[in-house]
Amino acid sequence: MSLTEVIGFVAGFGTTFAALPDLLAMLKRRSCKGMNPTMAAIMGTFQILWVYYGWLIGSRPVMVWNVVAVAINFLMVGSYVHFTRLERK
């Protein structure tokens, strides 16, 4: 693995897991208060484009970190839907 890829993996780590504290807080309090599903959906959409871009340029760090970020955003939107339904009852 080249130094460029190592730097890409390290840089991607920080940006990928930036949303994780919000997801964990939402799961801990079992509420979607304070969460903006539109932001998560927009981020997820553009992260899918980043995965495609990473594939086009052959960059493993771009693809790997954005696949993880898409999964985190998918969990955030799924949790939002779940907790919204619970709060309506």
- Give me the oligomer status: single chain
What does the main sheet amount to?
Answer: none
Identify the overall geometry: elongated
H/E element string?
Answer: HHHH
InterPro entries: SWEET_rpt
Keywords: Membrane, Transmembrane, Transmembrane helix
Pfam families: MtN3_slv
Protein name: MtN3 and saliva related transmembrane protein
Which keywords apply here?
single chain; 89 residues; mainly alpha; Monooxygenase; elongated; membrane; SWEET_rpt
How would you characterize this protein structure?
With 89 residues, the chain is mainly alpha-helical. It is elongated, with a radius of gyration of 15 Å. The model has no long low-confidence stretch (mean pLDDT 86). It has a single domain, classed as Monooxygenase (Up-down Bundle), CATH 1.20.1280.290. The protein is 83% helix and 0% strand. This is MtN3 and saliva related transmembrane protein. It comes from Nitrospira tepida. Keywords: Membrane, Transmembrane, Transmembrane helix. Pfam families: MtN3_slv (PF03083).
Describe this structure in a few short sentences.
Pfam families: MtN3_slv (PF03083). By secondary structure, the chain is an all-alpha fold.
Topology:
Blueprint: H1 3-16, H2 20-29, H3 37-57, H4 60-88
